[in-house]
Design brief:
Layout: E1 2-7, E2 11-17, E3 22-29, H1 36-49, E4 59-64, H2 67-81, E5 86-87, H3 108-120, E6 124-130, E7 133-139, E8 145-152, H4 154-164, H5 184-211, E9 215-220, E10 236-237, H6 241-258
Parallel strand pairs: 1-4, 4-5, 6-9, 9-10
Antiparallel strand pairs: 1-2, 2-3, 6-7, 7-8
Length: 259
């Protein structure tokens, strides 16, 4: 069985694939200082709840945008799974062209998403990943990563409002019924939520105009579901985009090893 680890700036996803389907998924807060031993204790308990033996995990693939965490995640695989993990960006064959000025600067998460999207959706794509940052990734019809745009995520914007303005409280994200708020909280919710909808719609329109060809827009990420039904600019919502990409990269690289 394969353990796939997808680490973002806010959350880290651990998912187990049995060769046919994903049988378990868990999320934990990303903490750069968490050790391999701490990960192992946490993971062993969750595996036991699903009646999965740690020894049955025979492969591991890691995608992380937190460089200081990779050492501990790699040690988790080496010490407790007795396997050498595949780490995105560490001599792993992705099998796609990266058509940007400095390919080494492309985030691991964005490349994995490009692969996961190209497996399912045809033609040219815009992949919108809503997390700590909101990324707009352009995937050409041949699967190439063509670049895109990065904006602050919706949670980051709420945090900035609260921390920078003394009179503005910390609030939860939710979709307000009205654009015009009648109190401080509803004003903030409207500005952040509908402001992000407008960001998505505006960026999608500008990208399509610049690209000059039809594009399918796919939404993914931790808070993507917030925007479902709020805008017609996103054609599909796909929460499994990243782990699908990780599984495909694993298959491509283990195939290369086996042949």
């Amino acid at each position: 069985m394969l353990l796939a680890i997808e680490q973002g700036n806010t959350n880290t996803l651990f998912a187990v694939h049995d060769g046919e389907t994903w049988i378990a998924q868990w999320r934990t807060a990303t903490e750069a200082s968490r050790t391999a031993d701490e990960y192992a204790v946490w993971l062993t308990q969750l595996l036991a709840m699903r009646k999965i033996d740690l020894a049955s995990l025979t492969g591991c693939i890691i995608s992380s945008v937190v460089p200081q965490s990779i050492f501990n995640l790699r040690n988790l695989a080496r010490r407790y799974l007795s396997v050498e993990p595949l780490v995105i960006g560490d001599n792993v064959q992705l099998g796609i062209p990266v058509r940007i000025n400095k390919p080494s600067e492309a985030g691991a998460d964005r490349l994995v998403n490009a692969i996961g999207a190209h497996l399912v959706y045809t033609g040219d794509l815009i992949v919108i990943d809503s997390g700590t940052a909101t990324t707009f990734d352009i995937v050409a019809a041949d699967g190439a990563f063509e670049g895109g745009a990065i904006a602050p995520g919706i949670n980051l914007s709420l945090q900035a409002l609260h921390e920078a303005a003394a009179m503005l409280p910390r609030i939860a994200i939710q979709r307000p019924d009205r654009v015009i708020g009648k109190d401080t909280v509803s004003n903030m919710q409207s500005g952040v939520f509908w402001g992000y909808v407008s960001l998505i719609e505006g960026m999608v329109a500008r990208i399509k105009a610049e690209w000059g060809k039809p594009m399918t827009v796919v939404g993914t990420g931790g808070v993507a579901s917030l925007f479902e039904g709020a805008t017609e600019s996103i054609d599909r919502f796909d929460p499994d985009l990243t782990i699908r990409g990780l599984l495909e990269i694993w298959r491509r690289n283990t195939h290369l090893t086996d042949t």
